Structure formats: C-alpha cells, structure tokens
Amino acid sequence: MPEKLALSLEVNGEARTVHAWPMARLLDVIREDLGLRGTKEGCGEGECGACSVFLNGRLVNSCLVPAVQAQGAMLQTIEGVAKGEALDPVQQAFLQHGGAQCGICTPGMVMAAVDLLQRCPEPSEADVRDGLAGNLCRCTGYVKIVDSVMAAAQSVSR
Amino acid sequence: MKGDVPACAVHTPANLEEALAFLAAHPDWRPLAGGTDLMVPFAAGRLPDFNFLNLDPLDELRGIELTDTHLTLGALTTYSEIRWHEGIRAAFPNLVQSAWVTGARAIQNRGTIGGNLANASPAADTPPSLLAYGAEVELRSARGARWVPYEAFHLGYKRTALAPGELIARVRVARPAPGAFHFYRKVGTRKAQAIAKVCLAAYGRLEGGRVAEFRAAFGAVAPVPARALAAEALVVSHTSADLDLDAVRAALAHDIAPIDDIRSSARYRRFVAERLFTAMLQDFLAHVG
Hints:
heterodimer
C-alpha cells in the first residue's frame, strides 16, 4: 500500500517536515500541510499562474508539482517575499500603482514579477508582458499590473 | 482535486540503470518527468494510472551537448533550458521558438522535451521543429538502446513506438547548414498558454536559387505531427520561377487531415495551414543565406 512521505523542505528559509502523499499537489501541501494560504488556486491546471512559487529558485506552478518531486527542495512562497515588515519593491509597487483588485492572481503575479526582475533587472514593457504571460488576471486587465512591475524595476535600479 | 492521491504509489530510482530495471519488472508504471502534462488529467481524475516512476532525479537524462555536428538533448531538458541556450539559439532557432511558445515561464521551467514527446499530443509545439530538422530519439530499456527517427516514433493519436520497459533517453538533431532557412509559426488564441490551432515548422537550403533541401512539418492538423511530404516533393529542386504554387497547395490537402474540435474547425485549420505554407515558401525562395 502507498504510504505518506516524510517530506522535508526548506520553506522560506526554515526547515520543515510534513507528511504528505507522494502524488499530492505541492499547492495542497503548501496551503494545507504547511498552512501558508498566500499561494492561491485558480485553474488547477497550469494555465493561470495563481499558484506560482519558487522551487529551488525556479518559478513553477505548484498545482503541477507532485509532492514527491519537492523532497529536499528549497521552496519560496509569497510569504517569503517580504523581508520581515519590509515589502519587496514589487509588492510596494503593486500597492502604489493599483496592481491588485480582487487579489487572487496577485501572489502569482508578484512571484512572476520577482522572477522576471531577477533575470532581467531593466525590462522593456514587452519583457514584462512576456514574463507575466503565464499569469491571468480576470479583474483589471493588465495595464496597472504592467505599470507596477515597470515601476518596481525603476525603483530597484535607481 | 479529483485524482485519487492516497491510492498512488511513486517509485523514485537512484539512477538510470535502476529505473530501467524497475520499468522492466513494472512496465505498466507511468514515467513521470516534469509533470506539466500528466498532473492535469491526474488532478482531474482522468488519468487511469495509479503508479508512477519518478524520473526527476535521474541526472543521466539531463544535459545539453552541442558539437560541430550535432545537438543532443537529455530527455529531461526543460523548455527554459532550450529557450535560453545561446548555442541552440544560434543554430536551431526553430527549437527556441518551439520552447518559447510552449505554455509560459513556469511551464517552461518544468516541462521536458522527453515528456513532450512521450505525451504524444498531435498539437505539441516541439515536434514540428524536430520533424523539420530530421531529429532522432534514443530509447533505452534494460535490454539496451536504440535510435529511432522521430518520424517513426509518433505512430498515431497519443501512440508512440515506445516498447514496454522503454524510456526516452535523448533527442539528437544534426546541425543545420550555415545560412539555411528556418521557419516556425504557431497560431493559437493567444501568444502564451495556448494550445496550437495550427503550427508549421520548416527547414531548407537553396543552392543558386534552387531548392537543395527542404522539410516542412505541421502540428495540430493531423492525428500526429506530420511532414508535408507531398507538398515538399513539389518544392525540392525548384526555383521561385518554376514552382507551381497551385499544385503545392493542392498537395497540401493530402498532407493534412484537420478536424473540428474545441480549439478550432477543420475549415479554419485548412485555410490557415495553406496560408502559412504559402507565406513560408515565399520567404524561403527569397531567402539569402
């Protein structure tokens, strides 16, 4: 009979061990076993990006990662983006530029934007649209989101 | 989440040899690479399998090797690794384009070339490029290894030449001639995160304005990604002056067999395939290497 795994990961810098089924979605492990509810479920099939997290430094859709493939990994969720009370420049820019409306897509948008700015610190608008292409927003359209990421890039490079 | 998670077992092998031995003993266990295809039907409760062989830790299936003659991709090479590889970008632009239009970044970071081929969707984005470049696939089992032309790998709708106990190990593509013509175009509802309605890749070479070499392949307009063999035959050894474009278009009708489905209609696909092919040919025949 299948058994639960003792799944050990580094979660936002902290060593954690939870017991999870090997084919459980990482998304469910994050929300239910690790108790981190910032990561959202949108489509559940890798289309919308709401569940985006960093797994070993790479942006992934956590709804498409089976728990077994996260064994020993370094996981960063939206809760690990701010440094204590200090928001990341991307989060700050979303606040200032109205980049969030209902908020469901926002954690994933922020993760994708952080990912983009790490590899492309001075993006063009086209780079931003490409970097966020896997994240869907159903409220605002994308103008304010793109504005927020452009502003975050400018605030970092200044 | 409708998949029966507690019922599922996963075996994580220590190395490729052990993985192949395990698969020989358990040929019905489903190999699992980046999960971007399998997790979708699994979570929806539409995947019949409950036992998975986790390929993720197998370093023997990773790595990109680019020599003077060939590009060899380990089966676990991700779309991101292909998309951002300078050498691949310079020599195999169609592969970079294919990787670019597959999903978006989070998918590209996990999805693998081997998984894309094993999933055997007629609408996948890399196969037309592999067909246009004449790629080969290495299949490994506990019995040994064999290279199969990709054209002979994808046999039918969701059906491949993988024998029980076999895994895709590597994909190999010969380096295209310098100055050759490369074409890749995917038509979908949006740029990212869309499944193709029609996809066309082509590779060719002119000598003194005459077509010396030409391969073109479609995705999403037949049960498998398919070469446009009848149309190709009417293009090879011609020049722009003596090419019979009407005959080429008529031949295309035999090369493709599009259907109506949720993404598009057969009529639209046929129309777009013909227009794409014509535009590609015009570019090709005007190509200066």
